[in-house]
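Batch queue: ligand-bound targets. Current item pairs a single chain with magnesium ion. No template structures supplied; prediction is de novo from sequence plus SMILES. Inputs echoed for audit trail.
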Amino acid sequence: MAWFRAVSSVAKLAIKRSIGQARSYQTRVITTSERRCFHSSVVNTKPHGATAPVPRPVPLSRLTDSFLDGTSSVYLEELQRAWEDDPNSVDESWDNFFRNFVGTAATSPGISGQTIQESMRLLLLVRAYQVNGHMKAKLDPLGLEEREIPDDLDPALYGFTDADFDREFFLGVWQMAGFLSENRPIQTLRAILNRLEQAYCGSIGYEYMHIADREKCNWLRDKIETPTPRQYNKQRREDMLDRLIWSTQFENFLATKWTAAKRFGLEGGETLIPGMKEMFDKAADLGVESIVIGMSHRGRLNVLGNVVRKPLRQIFSEFTGGIKPIDEVGLYTGTGDVKYHLGTSYDRPTRGGNRIHLSLVANPSHLEAVDPVVVGKTRGKQYYSNDVNRTKNLGILIHGDGSFAGQGVVYETLHLSGLPNYTTGGTIHIVVNNQVAFTTDPMSGRSSQYCTDVAKALDAPIFHVNGDDLEAVVHVCELAAEWRQTFHSDVVVDIVCYRRFGHNEIDEPSFTQPKMYKVIRNHPSALEIYQKKLLELGQISQEGIDKIHNKVNSILNEEFLNSKDDVPRKRDWLSAYWAGFKSPEQISRVRSTGVKPEILKTVGKAITTIPDNFKPHKALKKIFDLRNQMIEKGEGIDWAVGEALAFATLLVEGNHVRLSGQDVERGTFSHRHSVIHDQETGENYCPLDHILLNQDEELFTVSNSSLSEFAVLGFELGYSMENPNSLVIWEAQFGDFSNGAQVMFDQFLSSGESKWLRQTGLTVLLPHGYDGQGPEHSSARLERFLQMSDDNPFVIPEMDPTLRKQIQECNWQVVNVTTPANYFHVLRRQIHREFRKPLIVMAPKNLLRHKDCKSNLSEFDDGQGHPGFDKQGTRFKRLIKDQNNHSDLEESIRRLVLCSGKVYYELDDERKKVQSSDVAICRVEQLCPFPYDLIQRELKRYPNAEIVWCQEEPMNMGAYSYVAPRLCTAMRAMGRGTMEDLKYVGRIPSAATATGFHQSHVKEQAGLVQKALQSDPISYPF
Ligand SMILES: Cc1ncc(C[n+]2csc(CCOP(=O)(O)OP(=O)(O)O)c2C)c(N)n1
Ligand SMILES: [Mg+2]
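Prediction returned. Tokens below.
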């Protein structure tokens, strides 16, 4: 094809120049409108002169001006000479071409130039249809859209006149699928054009010529350029009709029963439902066993009822509203959510006699935010079902036209599709393109021709289809399933439809789209159109149609009656159900997270050993040697080793561990080195892949991600939702960047369990700490995560270890950990409990190599009585008490400094420097939920101490505003004062997170550390 591309681009220019003036064949309706839209104009195929004129001979060498430019004609001549010398020296397609051409030329001397010219022009025309035929397809059911048909679909551009229509032309037989390969090298122009129009300009507009892969294009051409139009038999047609009746009646039924309720109906796009069902049936026939669906509001209830088969009585009962779900395993119901956001999962029988598991993922109002979550969940399913070819689990996303074009997360998600550790073997995208977004027209909503253009970046084929043509919708839906199962990559179905009512049922659409709605008011529904078609074809009788309507109506009514007795259960809303896991109101045991010393030693060796024949970078060799010594000696364990020990021990226990994010393999701060590279061969070695004998290579996954926060975090969230026995971690490059994924934190992570009863143990590592790197690399915005926490600042919950449900009842955990051992335990705690809760970690930067930020191996093990063991056992320490061996009562301590994170080490250094042994420093390692019990234990220990909260963040940031009321609640309960008695030491309030001037940083940092240790009492607030 390279030759063809090269020739066609130069030739196209030449054609425009020379033949443009002589245009005699004008069929296009070219509007001057600036609107970027669809139109429905049709090529004029009226009969043309029947007699072919005698071609005027043009010697090849004189074609330069009229057809090809000089370079191309020389190229062609050279090609011909080469072919004459040796037919094998040219591409097979040219061999074919010349063979045919010489055959013709031999019998008709002088025809040669003409034949070449015309054949080349025809090929360009064919190609133009393949590339741009969709621009002429009749996609808009309303017939309102006006689009300019590209010049290159006009035969006149290639010099063809009316007189040429019934002339036979030499088209050749090419190494290409579709009708060019059918061994009919000679055809009339009319036959060729009819074929092109039928294939490319009907109810379906195919966009695929942006795909570079020849095999894929040929596969599509075979499907598109079929000699006979698609035909469905009577039975299939009846099935489709039945499905369309269900879809249409469902909306009608809701509209009549709940006239004032918002349901974001599908009216105008009802063919989505039969389309999806046929897609699922086809997918099931091709081996798909489970489908994860993500979609927004539009048509969601219809999809839930008709596609996912959520019992209609449940949907109706939710409409009637008010009933909170009751469950056999507890009373927790969270806050709930509106019905068109809820998820669910069901097994659905398919036409082919299979069963397919469908899960619809719950989503927030934020359009498209669910996309990466669906893809991540699909990938999770693939891992757990050992679906190595990714053909059994499929992700399907349904989009709106406005949101698909407008939301950046769409692009971010699409870009995960080909990445080895994120691919799911192709997502099928369906756009319900109702040509409006709320009140916004496409011309104000996007700059691209189609709302789907973003998918072209992926080499995904895009099938635009007129939503009024049920059979065309079904056809492309099936084709999409076939594509996905064949090429394991993304594909887009763009159903061009309309929205019969307003954005929701209460809106008046004519305020903003008067012309469109005038047309819509008189426009028949897709069902009416299809019924008429089948009646005209004699494939069904009116009685037959009525029978289906009656059946559907009576089921809907029956289900409506049953809905009154429906008792919702919370698992009805879950897209996956984890048996045995505790809900927030059920007590779960606190478990030790320590590990047997011998296991620590064994895995410790595995994670610090590099194979003999592997040649790492010199510096890394040293690092691994040092790591090896840490394990051998059992002391000086640093952050990276602590983390690797957590991963390795979880793997040994059979858990799956997945860490993803930007540059996580090496680690942003060059500290992790979880994948090392042979300096000679470039090969990789990942020690954590070699913990178990014959370890499955995905059991531990560490993966650098694309440069996205929103989509990658969403992906990992979806992945984490699939199976509780996995530690799934997303790490931000710097904590600041996490706000690129703010929607995920706000809408999913912090509130997903409350809204949708969906648990996740996703762990998020956000590098945080003030070390003078400026405003953008210091703060992970700890305050925001704390502000979103739902623990009551004025109520101390039950803290008795046997009754404690504090973490379960809280929406998430926020920690700022200061020792490798504590990090190890907090990671392991994520798995070693009977519930799942998101974990936000303010991850360190300079502690990664800090001389004092080290732990002994004994702090990781489960033995008792050694230096790492205290009353809390070998488990995560929510608060680390002062390290100076204080007794239970220290009356001489004049100040208790409470802090969190790396500022502790600076405070401790300062304390040593100024020898303030009468100051105690405690680290609050778990900020949320607040460790009231341990805080009160320390308040008791230091009855005379001034109580100080010290932080390095500005006062309006960091943990202060979260800690202050809670600390005061703890103080008040012990008679230790109120807000006035809590002193603040830290930076003053600031708009920016940190200063950009290093010297200012140093001064500020030293100032706050010194103040915390000053001998005078701390004045309030400064
Ligand atoms: C991220 C986001 N921004 C804004 C909105 C508010 N909103 C709700 S629906 C809608 C229009 C959606 O248009 P489209 O994607 O075409 O879907 P349609 O409603 O037409 O099916 C908007 C802007 C939203 N839900 N999410
Ligand atoms: Mg829309």
